[in-house]
UniProtKB/TrEMBL annotation:
Its EC number is 1.14.14.21. Pathway: Sulfur metabolism; dibenzothiophene degradation. This is Dibenzothiophene monooxygenase. The lineage of its organism: Bacteria, Bacillati, Actinomycetota, Actinomycetes, Mycobacteriales. GO terms for biological process: L-leucine catabolic process. Pfam families: Acyl-CoA_dh_2, Acyl-CoA_dh_M. It comes from Mycolicibacterium fluoranthenivorans. It is found in: Cytoplasm. Keywords: Flavoprotein, FMN, Monooxygenase, Nucleotide-binding, Oxidoreductase. One of its GO terms (cellular component) is cytoplasm. One of its GO terms (molecular function) is monooxygenase activity. Gene3D superfamilies: Acyl-CoA dehydrogenase/oxidase, N-terminal domain, Butyryl-CoA Dehydrogenase, subunit A, domain 2, Butyryl-CoA Dehydrogenase, subunit A, domain 3.
Length: 404
């Protein structure tokens, strides 16, 4: 593992160069269904995974606003790569706001260049967002054994560690951080979605995996779900991250729309202007796509600011009733409701700037719609909108699940 000596910081030339390098070959990777293992290695070496670690501890010292701005820029370059890192940045964020021991552990991990993947969700009949896991952690002498199967394990195919949610013998939720190269861990590249195809969002199997006591991350789990505090912080972060990915695709849509207008050698005889870049109808389509990208980014960053306020209050123990955390969750939900619609509309509008030839597979412009539609399917918009409406009409708090 590469240890970085100079932190990667927001706004730096190094970060800009890294994002440009991620974008190189992204279209060809999509064309050939290629997995970005080399790009993830580049990210390890760059120290991007330590972007949120404080500067005084050797990290990039980025604010939450700066982190989300980076995610948007990375998603504009390659939305698959940006999505792969979601579990990692969420892991870092969660640990940084816990006790000093957890902060020291996650700092060392992030500075080492290691990447953490997600292994939470399971297929089955249990409602999504509950705390009943088929994956089990059982005592084995002074250590434990982990057995189970996870799906939607975005990023784990590329990761050094998997953050695994499981149930202990008392059915309490526990979290284990397990190396992905440990005996008994199998990560399958079996994600068959029509979008986000290179994210490794498939199956992870844990068969008699040895887990040591110091690899358990969960602090004293509650005895019942009724005692479990709402997970507004982690839920808002996870969901806002997905919305930021959509905004990155909006920026890519704008760039591709402009490029394709300039590539048009002809227009229609009845077009307002024979030059496609000077055609006011095509300019309007591009203008609407560009406006959606702008509004989307501004909305995500505003919600990131609300999450930062809740984060600081949680660290300082000044938000015991989680009012600020709930506000951050509310803003993240509202951002999704609006941006889902803008992004899906823009992903269709791009086909109005290039004529019939724009649908050719050589352009692969359908990838933007496929990726946006896949991202928007994370906790469908209708559930978010209804929950927001219930809050404003009845004062009903938002669901306190990390999945909301």
């Amino acid at each position: 593992m590469t240890t970085t000596t100079e932190p990667l910081t927001f706004g730096s030339e190094r970060l800009a160069a890294l994002i440009a390098a991620v974008g190189e070959g992204a279209l060809e990777r999509e064309r050939h269904n290629e997995r970005p293992f080399a790009v993830i290695d580049l990210i390890r070496e760059s120290g991007l995974g330590a972007l949120r670690i404080p500067r005084e501890h050797g990290g990039g010292g980025a604010s939450l606003r700066e982190l989300f701005a980076t995610v948007i820029a990375l998603a504009a370059a390659d939305v698959n790569v940006a999505h792969i890192l979601r579990g990692h940045f969420a892991h870092v964020e969660e640990r940084l706001r816990l006790d000093e021991v957890q902060r020291q552990r996650v700092t060392a991990l992030a500075l080492s260049g290691a990447i953490v993947g997600n292994a939470s969700t399971e297929l089955g009949s249990e409602p999504a967002g509950g705390f009943v896991w088929q994956t089990r952690l059982t005592p084995d002498g002074d250590a434990y054994r982990l057995n189970g199967k996870k799906f939607f394990t975005t990023g784990t195919l590329y990761a050094d560690y998997a953050e695994v949610l499981a149930s202990d013998p008392a059915d309490a939720t526990v979290i284990a951080l397990v190396p992905t190269d440990r005996a008994g861990v199998t990560v399958l590249d079996d994600w068959d979605g029509f979008g986000q195809r290179a994210t490794g969002t498939g199956t992870a199997i844990f068969a008699e995996v040895a887990v040591t006591a110091d690899e358990l991350l969960q602090f004293s789990p509650p005895e019942s779900d009724a005692e479990r505090p709402p997970l507004y912080h982690s839920g808002a972060f996870f969901q806002l991250y997905v919305t930021a990915l959509e905004v990155g695709v909006l920026h890519a849509l704008r760039a591709d729309a402009v490029a394709h207008v300039h590539q048009r050698a002809r227009s229609f005889t009845w077009a307002p202007n024979p030059s496609a870049p000077d055609d006011p109808l095509l300019q309007r389509e591009i203008g609407e796509i560009a406006a959606a990208a702008y509004v989307g980014e501004a909305t995500v960053l505003a919600a990131a600011d609300a999450l930062a306020i809740a984060y600081e209050a949680d660290v300082d123990k000044t938000d015991p009733n989680l009012e600020l955390a709930h506000e951050a969750s509310l803003q993240a939900a509202a951002a999704k409701v609006v941006i889902d619609g803008l992004a899906q509309k823009a992903a269709s509008q791009i086909f109005d700037v290039g004529g019939a030839s724009v649908v050719r597979q050589s352009h692969l412009l359908d990838r933007h719609w496929r990726n946006i539609r896949t991202l928007a399917s994370h906790n469908p918009t209708s559930y978010k909108a209804q929950a927001i409406g219930a809050y404003y009409t009845r004062g009903t708090k938002l669901p306190g699940s990390g999945y909301f």
